[in-house]
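Example 3.
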Amino acid sequence: MARVGLNTERLTAAGAELADEVGFDKVTVSALARRFGVKDASLYSHVKNSQDLKTRIALLALEELADRAAAALAGRAGKDALTAFANAYRGYAHEHPGRYAAAQLDLDPETARASAAVRHSQMTRAILRGYHLAEPDETDAVRLLGSTFHGYVALERSGGFQHTPRTAEDSWARILDALDALLRAWPAA
Amino acid sequence: MARVGLNTERLTAAGAELADEVGFDKVTVSALARRFGVKDASLYSHVKNSQDLKTRIALLALEELADRAAAALAGRAGKDALTAFANAYRGYAHEHPGRYAAAQLDLDPETARASAAVRHSQMTRAILRGYHLAEPDETDAVRLLGSTFHGYVALERSGGFQHTPRTAEDSWARILDALDALLRAWPAA
DNA sequence: TAAATTACCTAGGCGTCCTAGGCAAATGTA
DNA sequence: TACATTTGCCTAGGACGCCTAGGTAATTTA
């Protein structure tokens, strides 16, 4: 009985790959076991249950996404930073659709607070510092950017932009222009 | 053997209610059968399979959402229309979280084209007529609005706004102000 | 009232999730 | 090297969801 060398980390990584290949919703304990050539019961010494596995994949994706965004942001400010950040986000979603879907998993508040999700909002705030918004405007702008980026990627992935000749690429660029203009001229309350 | 009087429509409606109560992902053929006091096999004369059931719930939700948005839009223009439309959207998501989740289901292109999703983008375009944008700016603006509304509701529902004292309500109002300002001063390419 | 239809049933196969308990491979210790 | 401990993967098996085939009884139609 040769041992395959399973552990939590390898299972999480393989789960993330599986998600990108077949979709996050099709990541199951059984499918993952099959991929390692072991019985599904064998995975339960490494992950608590199916939910635990999915949560770990989600946390991995959030980390990767935050790392990528941080790298994109380094040394940039203003519109440059905004664009780099937004493209990092969208690029990750395109390259890793399954992981991106995983990152949308509803985490319980405690897990969320300890996750890389925190870094995401911090980075958004860092970008906004270049636009000199006072509170609560900055918070509102953080929410606007988060919503728009996430919403755009979600609609794009579900094929919502395909019945018009205008490419998703071109709209994206113009929307970033528009958001930059909006942040520079944020209306007074 | 008393008959309950199942049919496709009743199953869809009950499925939508179930979704609002326990979450769209927990809507199963078995759970729905249980709710009617029949065996799960009995549902298969009315819906083709589990996917078919979910698609029907999604289409129902899209219709309801479009109806509500259309009612909100009636007789309004400009910022008034923008706000009414956005609030109809967000209000529906709050009142019917399960149905709203259903409306996000990935439909195959053919089904999507025949669905009320088409009315949604038509209504967004109707709102934008008040802002006099030329193409392709109007298309870009349609995508911006769709993304932002959807993204905001998604982040709000997943608890993304809870670690700041600023209420989701207040940010929402200011974001609508900002979008209105942006549409009135859409930057030139 | 007989025939046709149909609403719901039972039986049963398959897949996924998960627990309990066992054996053998790897690792630590004398 | 020999034994003890740990642990990685196993088998067995239960619960539940999805779905098909074929039957029976309630309803509708002629």
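Chain A has a mean pLDDT of 96. The radius of gyration of chain A is 19 Å.
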